[in-house]
Amino acid sequence: MKYSELHPNIKIRIITDFFTDLTQKSILPFMAIYLSLHIGAGWAGMILTVNIIVSMLVGLGAAYWSDRLGRKRLMVLAQSLQVVALFWLAVANSPWLDSIWLTCIMFLICSISSGITVPIANAMIVDVSSEHERHYIYGLQYWTTNVAITFGALLGGLLFESYRFLLFSLVFLESLITLLILIIWIHETISSMHTEQSSSTNKKSILATYGNVLTNKRFMVFFTATVLATSLEFQLDKYIAVRLKDEFSAQLLHWDITGLQMFSFIMAINTVLVALIAIPFSKWMSRYRSLPIMTVGMALYTTGFVLLAFSNWALLLIAAAMVFTIGELMYSPVRQVLLAGMIPDSARAAYIAADGMSYNVAALLGSLGLTIGAFLPSYAMAGLYALMGLGSLYYFRKTLGLRTED
Question: Which residues make beta-bridge pairs with 255?
């Protein structure tokens, strides 16, 4: 499998998504700090929560309509909203105007745009790819996303505080270029015959559509597995980071290392490994069946988090970071391929939007883990992580054993 052999839509989306992720991640991680400084932590938390909820609800609605009207027109609409919002976001943080409330409104519109785009763009990839290609595509996407997040965070760290107008202007230009690329080169992936059939034979309301999603046994088993697996990932910058800060201190090669430094080192290991081996891994995994890859990957992923939950030995923590990263590189693309293979053609975007909700649920469980960790010892948290990982593996394997239910 080579990049040049992919459908033109996929090649374009991988490139534009890289730059979109890079620019967005230069803003999003710093918005909470910015809002807290200007309007207080309470209001900042409320605004961020509203953004997440609105983005999720809009995404569900947009996915429903894209299965009926087509992908491209809604993606162009969403990207146009993004361009307008980023323009005014730059203006609101310019030398001529400093408006926190205009910033908040435009930030909400950006969230709405992202909510529309993500499930539709993911459905478009499924529309024009085969199961054999998806191992490579999702591995490549995983790599580009992680590299973009790393450089985006670095860019935001350099520019957000003192050069916000310049940063927002660069993001606006990137968004405008993406819109032009989308209009000129991206092709619709749902045929006119499909949309006519959808409008005439599939007149289910949005509630009925997502009701069918919730009653699809195989998908809900998969959803549960995803929530459990992703909840472990959300523990990394919550319970595990706090535990290391409170409990860890060591010497490594005659250097004194604090818990926060150890946490940063773990994150750096994760980033470097992903950048170096994600693409070779995706090519290697395409040769094997999904079941053994998923089993080994989830076993390694779970083992890594169990060790991170209780160990204070630096070398073991470094090994754990490598182990969970390799496990994630193995199971994550297979998870994406599994999702793409189980969803019905007539409701692809709707299922992908519903799958996106698993990350919201996992984020809530990640925060809950921090609260639970305040009352349980670290070895008990390690046991809880083991149960979550084994539960996720069980449900992923069960998903592979069930027939697709339309």
Answer: 252
* DSSP 8-state code for residue 97: E
The span from the CA of 207 to the CA of 354, in Å, is: 12
Q: Are 21 and 149 in contact (CB under 8 A)?
A: yes
Rounded Cα distance between 335 and 305, Å, is: 19
pLDDT at 27 over 90: no
pLDDT at 276: 84
Q: Is a pLDDT exceeding 50 seen at residue 200?
A: no
DSSP sequence for 311-375 = ---HHHHHHHHHHHHHHHHHHHHHHHHHHHHHS-GGGHHHHHHHHHHHHHHHHHHHHHHHHHHTT
Q: Are 131 and 340 in contact (CB under 8 A)?
A: yes
Query: Position 103: which residue type?
Result: T
- The three-state DSSP-derived secondary structure of 171-185 is HHHHHHHHHHHHHHH
Average pLDDT over residues 235-264: 80
Tell me the C-alpha distance between 31 and 220, whole Å: 33
Cα 396 from Cα 226, distance rounded (Å)? 8
* Whether the Cβ atoms of residue 1 and residue 286 lie closer than 8 Å to each other: yes
* Residue pair 160/33 in contact by the 8 Å Cβ criterion: no
375-391: pLDDT as tens digits: 889 999 999 999 999 99
* DSSP annotation string for 301-326: HHHHHHHHHH---HHHHHHHHHHHHH
Q: What average pLDDT score do residues 354-376 get? A: 82
State the pLDDT at residue 405: 43
Strand pairing partners for 98?
93
- Residue whose pair of structure tokens reads 């909820």 in the numeric block: 53
Residue 111 corresponds to which amino acid?
A: S
Mean predicted lDDT score pLDDT of the chain = 84
What's the CA gap between 11 and 281, in Å, rounded?
19
Whether the per-residue pLDDT at 198 is higher than 60: the answer is: no
Would you give the DSSP letter of residue 258?
Answer: E
